[in-house]
Design brief:
With 178 residues, the chain is α/β, with parallel strands linked by helices. It has helices at residues 2-26, 40-50, 67-73, 86-99, 128-141; strands at residues 57-61, 78-83, 104-108, 121-124, 147-151, 162-164, 167-171. The protein has a 7-stranded mixed sheet, with helices on one face. α3 links the parallel β1 and β2 (78-83). Bound molecules: S-adenosylmethionine. S-adenosylmethionine binds next to α3 and β2.
Length: 178
Amino acid sequence: MLEVLILILGILIASVIVSSYFMLFIYPLVGGAPYVPTDTVKVDNMLELSDLGPGKIAVDLGSGDGRIVIAAAKTGAEAHGYEISPLLVLLSRATIKRLQLNNAVIHSGSFWDADLSKYDVIFMYQLPYVMQRLEQKFVDNLKPGAVIISNAFSIKNWKPFKTSGTVFAYRVSDNWPK
Ligand SMILES: C[S@@+](CC[C@H](N)C(=O)[O-])C[C@H]1O[C@@H](n2cnc3c(N)ncnc32)[C@H](O)[C@@H]1O
């Protein structure tokens, strides 16, 4: 009897580990980067380059545990995140609720389906092949003057107006196709 219970418990624990791994690292790869959080020093760099504040609206494309959305909301801006992993959506929403941030929202779903036209600032930490696809969405869908802050990877062929280590700041209108 005890062996059966241990076996069932083992199967349950293994399923939770496998499905969490799948949701965090495999599932996102279909449309973007797997979950790797930005370290806190870089979050500060990204916020500084963005010049965010009250009256502005920002979005993190692939918001992970919500750390960038939360930091953006703390500047007084309206902050949104799109996240494809249900586990990370739950986690980030719980943190936002605990911090009572009424100006932070996590959208559950893919950023490929998002209308980005209202955002002043777009944060991202994505892989180069995803960013190459995003270039066209940015040109088609962002308003003139919108600022993109990219962590770790630069946008191929675009000219940043500012950099800080491996954080790159772009303005869409400066990189409009000629
Ligand atoms: C490298 S992590 C960055 C997380 C967070 N932005 C940060 O800097 O800490 C990339 C995130 O994008 C999410 N992701 C990947 N593809 C996505 C998609 N198509 N739509 C929404 N989120 C996506 C992943 O689940 C992951 O949380």
